[in-house]
């Protein structure tokens, strides 16, 4: 049995008067004032802090198996717990690819052993992410890891017939297909957003239409298949409009935006620093603004980190040679506060919605993203909204250090994360089940 945890004097969703919250094994046991507990209970002072449901990340790259020099289930779980996450979805573009139950079950089991966050494996849609033949989605869905989301992320399932079949199959299995929307014929050699900045810097451009044409196509394919489709890392104003249109037609579409696309734009590329290379690329300020508005009005469902660790040698090189991707797990909340809460686009209820409730609903997790009520799962996070911190890559829990926020001072910080009644992170320290990292 996990000892009980009593959180004193905390404001739920940042609303109303502070209360005490008693967390037991698995569940929230009581919410009230001056709650009494036994001697063995762990007491956390929540004064000045906000309690939210634990965050759920639909888009994490943990690099295990294959690139354990850049991230592992262990190190990525530590980053997740420190970032306030109680569940993450580990993308399939590992080596070997997670296109079989052997790999998806391994990732799930490693996550359970480490015990810092529920690691849900994402299965590949196609064998080897090659876009030619459907992977055995049914077998992966039936494994112990119970795969509920499939994606070739890193690559687009661009063959329209194959995508149609995958959507049809997913509808009958009750699972979700998440699409990395990139028409590959429009992005040959592309390293940056196609626009004035890339033109001036002499960088090959990735046009907005490469993303938007796939979003439009897949919305129509999902409509015809009676399936749901999820759009990974929406990056353009046009994608927001297309998702809005599709939903108005009754199409079952959902979309995520990354913290970096909410904060950064392509003016960052002036330095030619590979740290800023990411797929889809950093776009223009007008896209950033549209993504913020889309997230605020619910057109974009949720924030997903696209946490993408890369080795120093793969980032610290010529811009066009740098691997695309940025760390995100430990900085996500602060970036959401900076871009959404501070400008008044979201309140704390809204943060709970986009970082926990909607992502849990999109993948059908019934033990995450739940209300902070008695009897609900004890998956919660405490946030200090008034603090600020300066980001330093080497201080983060990830093995890789490729944060685009180096030396930036960001608002708000996760102080405590609790998974099924057990503290997994507190003031930057993590408490894995294995007792070692
Ligand atoms: C991701 C990666 O490194 O695996 N890179 C990225 O730039 N986003 C793949 C992806 O999410 O497309
Ligand atoms: Zn992607």
From TrEMBL:
Gene Ontology cellular component terms for the protein in this record: cytoplasm
Enzyme Commission identifier(s): 3.5.2.3
Functional pathway: Pyrimidine metabolism; UMP biosynthesis via de novo pathway; (S)-dihydroorotate from bicarbonate: step 3/3
Catalytic activity: (S)-dihydroorotate + H2O = N-carbamoyl-L-aspartate + H(+)
Start and end residues of each Dihydroorotase catalytic domain: 48-236
Root EC class: hydrolase
A Gene Ontology molecular function term of the record: dihydroorotase activity
Superkingdom, taxonomy of origin: Bacteria
Binding annotation for Zn(2+) 1: 59, 61, 153, 306
Database matches in Pfam families: DHOase
Cofactor note: Binds 2 Zn(2+) ions per subunit.
Binding site for substrate: 61-63, 93, 279, 310, 324-325
Entry keywords, A to Z: Hydrolase, Metal-binding, Pyrimidine biosynthesis, Zinc
A single GO BP: 'de novo' UMP biosynthetic process
Active-site annotation: 306
Listed cofactors: Zn(2+)
Binding site for Zn(2+) 2: 153, 180, 233
PANTHER family assigned to the protein according to its UniProt record, in alphabetical order: ALLANTOINASE (PTHR43668:SF2)
Record family assignment: Belongs to the metallo-dependent hydrolases superfamily. DHOase family. Class I DHOase subfamily.
Biological role stated in the UniProt entry: Catalyzes the reversible cyclization of carbamoyl aspartate to dihydroorotate.
Protein name as annotated: Dihydroorotase
Organism, as annotated: Rhodococcus gordoniae
Native organism taxonomy: Bacteria, Bacillati, Actinomycetota, Actinomycetes, Mycobacteriales
